[in-house]
Amino acid sequence: MDKSLIKNYCSTNEESRNSLGLAIDKLGMSARAYDKILKVARTIADLEGSSSIETPHISEAIQYRSLDKKVEV
């Protein structure tokens, strides 16, 4: 999924964007990580039947990303 598709299909509310931005800053993640987290959060939201990505979806996606980073080391 490229940036234009992410923009179209991974809509978030302001609270979710702020949560993701804070996590990216605190954890020192890249812009690529931002996009990957959004894609995972979109999948989580889809599985829950949600039309938009909400803060709990972002939080869960960040947890998966954090686990992924621990495994890579």
From TrEMBL:
<protein>
    <recommendedName>
        <fullName>Mg chelatase-related protein C-terminal domain-containing protein</fullName>
    </recommendedName>
</protein>
<feature type="domain" description="Mg chelatase-related protein C-terminal">
    <location>
        <begin position="1"/>
        <end position="65"/>
    </location>
</feature>
<dbReference type="InterPro" id="IPR025158">
    <property type="entry name" value="Mg_chelat-rel_C"/>
</dbReference>
<dbReference type="InterPro" id="IPR027417">
    <property type="entry name" value="P-loop_NTPase"/>
</dbReference>
<dbReference type="Pfam" id="PF13335">
    <property type="entry name" value="Mg_chelatase_C"/>
</dbReference>
